[in-house]
Design brief:
2 copies of one chain form a homodimer. Chain A has 11 helices and 22 strands. Chain A is of the alpha/beta class. Chain A starts with 17 loop residues before the first strand and ends with a strand.
Chain lengths: 414, 414
């Protein structure tokens, strides 16, 4: 869509979607077929093909020795978890509930690490028993984990999450720098590392997470360099090479008009260069990044059906059976100051040229329930399907599904 | 808390809470007892006593002929729905899911009206069969309702939701004025009203909702006057007196430091005066308001337990087992620009003087998961319970409970 289109711009539709018989098609099936097979709308459709293509491009761009983990908080649908098993090197979880999903999907818990600032004793116990690596968030949590391991008679696999003094520039959400609930302030990490090693735990090194949803390769390159420097410094103070370093994530995806895809080639080249000249403390370390949104975000589409088409004061409203209870971020998170449009389309008229400015709203009784604001789209009628893209991450998992008694959407991996 | 307290101000703790043995007590039980009986934390506790007291004050302030409905979107816990049955005159719902909750609670569907811009055919059919009054949101929805009524052989009870040309000044969320997905633009309502009457439906008048969470009595008084004028004008154009007028809601509660309680006496006095001089079109009308947050918001407390106490760069973080997955609004809705604190307390040290600035955060891996920012509170330790007040409305029902695999909180009415 050009800047000159009427209405407000829509985000860029991700690559990998097809048109069959004029309709949006995913995995060789039209939107209408997918809805029929799933049993109705609203429906999240996740594409194996797009996830696999994303992973293939990422592997090609990154150094071979870099491990790539999947942070399941982005999308923990059981089929997605299982599909990832052959594509990624490990999984990152954030709760005991996510550990249960990992176990239920039949994934080997030794591939899993667990970060999160409020781990309860039962979560620590489940994770230690299963052989999950804990990214410890505080000295207090470390002591609890050691005590629980001893009580269970299991050697815990322990890493320390570091709160670095820097953050990731230009990231959508800064996770480091200054006072934070996450991790241990960098200057206190060496002492805690020595304590963990002395206590006889299986020492799994460091986790340094600095931000998320960055679209600037320069910012990520700079941050990764800082992470490697900090890890080297901490390892030196601990007095032994690091067994493992989780360098965090932060790879963003384009949601909005004007967003450019992240230049992963530049990130991979910079990492390759750094990896060619690692200090002794990191030379043999298991090096990994953890990505959630980047791996699955573009692979998902949210489909909902137009229930009413109405005009109010000369504006057209396409009222759907979906809404912010499934796609909170697309609606603007209960009142973002500057709301911008995710990419959107009329799925059942995917190759029809846009000819009308239309608002796409949800079925909830709140003016915040807007899926697409004044987008220039093909004229749509009751019964048409609307597609909201970029729905593979933090859609179903991060929206208030019970709001106004609506309940969750259907989900399908194709 | 005075303006001179260190840290950032907390919202005002609502009236009606007690102290027993130094702890916050609700319904004669301490926070610790309530948690033990409910089986753990996080736990929403709703107080019968506070709801009843709120209703009693409201009845005393409002004209006797004004009916007061409960909008269950604020809190649809089954025990709350049943408890309301003897306190309120009717219920307002926003989805077929909420209708199922009403039926499950054994509430007479003839007391219920249903508004919502995206009602599906199955929702219209269920509501018509049950005898629920539909607040129609468009001409298209009206035609669907009439057709479904005919097919079912049931006379539908139909009202029209009006999109007025004015909104409620100072309301937290404006629901009228300009182009909106809600209701029928005022100038098109008379024609639709005549159509509904001519079609033989049971004509239930108008629903005019203009905003929510207003703390200014003047704004509500002015809006109610506008609503009555508009209803009279529409009734005159339709050519017969109105059987019923739902004047909407909008009564707000104090969440933040500096918020003053709504002056309901002023609203009641103004309504009394208007009701004494109603035009012929409204003289015999069933007049009601619909309130959700105002009836239950102050009656709820969210209790969570401190899992970790940590210091980062000289700031104290009390990490709890709760978070934005249960109390999204208290956290700032995924990134409000100016985040303000709801009222908060250390429930297990309720009568201990504040002596330390502490952050209360949730257990989620996001810096947005903050329940109370730099509040001046009694020094708290691991195991203490934190109370976040104003949790009776739009807490459990409007938060992303599945985020990061956490699952819902417990809920109890005491």
């Amino acid at each position: 869509m050009s800047d000159k289109a009427p209405g407000k711009p829509l985000g860029p539709i991700p690559a990998g979607f097809d048109t069959i018989g004029g309709q949006l098609a995913i995995g060789g099936k039209t939107a209408a077929q997918l809805v029929q097979q799933a049993g109705g709308t609203p429906l999240f459709v996740y594409s194996r093909e797009i996830i696999a293509a994303t992973m293939a491009r990422l592997r090609a761009a990154m150094p071979a020795r870099l491990h790539i983990n999947y942070a399941i908080k982005a999308n923990s649908h059981p089929d997605v978890l299982r599909f990832m098993a052959d594509l990624v090197d490990g999984y990152d979880i954030a709760s005991g509930g996510e550990l249960e999903k990992i176990m239920a999907a039949g994934i080997d818990a030794s591939r899993v690490s667990f970060a999160g600032p409020g781990k309860r004793d039962w979560e620590l116990g489940s994770a230690i028993s299963a052989g999950v690596t804990l990214n410890l968030e505080s000295e207090g949590e470390a002591e609890r984990a050691l005590a629980i391991g001893e009580r269970l008679g299991v050697t815990p696999h322990l890493a320390i999450r570091v709160n670095p003094s820097f953050d990731m520039k230009g990231s959508g959400m800064k996770m480091g720098g200054g006072a934070k609930p996450f991790g241990v302030d960098a200057e206190r990490v060496p002492a805690l590392g020595r304590r963990i090693i002395a206590a006889g735990a299986d020492w799994r090194g460091l986790h340094i997470y600095t931000g998320s949803q960055a679209l600037s390769a320069d910012a990520i390159v700079e941050t990764q360099a800082n992470v490697l420097d900090l890890a080297d410094q901490i390892a030196s103070e601990i007095g032994q090479p690091l067994p493992k370093l989780n360098m965090g994530g932060g790879f963003g995806i384009p949601y909005f008009h004007g967003d450019e895809p992240l230049d992963i080639a530049a990130i991979g080249a910079a990492l390759e260069e750094r990896f060619g000249d690692l200090p002794a403390s990191l030379k043999d370390a298991h090096l990994c990044i953890e990505l959630g949104r980047y791996l699955v975000g573009l692979a998902g589409v949210y489909l909902c059906r137009i229930v009413d088409r109405k005009v109010s004061h000369d504006e057209v409203f396409l009222v759907t059976d979906g809404g912010l209870h499934h796609q909170l971020a697309a609606s603007g998170n209960f009142g973002t100051v500057v709301r911008r449009n995710y990419p959107a389309a009329i799925a059942t008229r995917f190759d029809t040229p846009a000819d009308e400015v239309q608002n796409v709203v949800g079925c909830l009784c709140t003016p915040l329930d807007k899926l697409s604001d004044k987008g220039f789209l093909p004229h749509a009628e009751v019964g048409d399907l609307v597609a909201i893209f970029c729905a593979g991450a933090y859609g179903a998992s991060a929206s208030p599904a019970q709001f106004l008694g609506q309940g969750p959407a259907l989900e399908v991996l194709v």
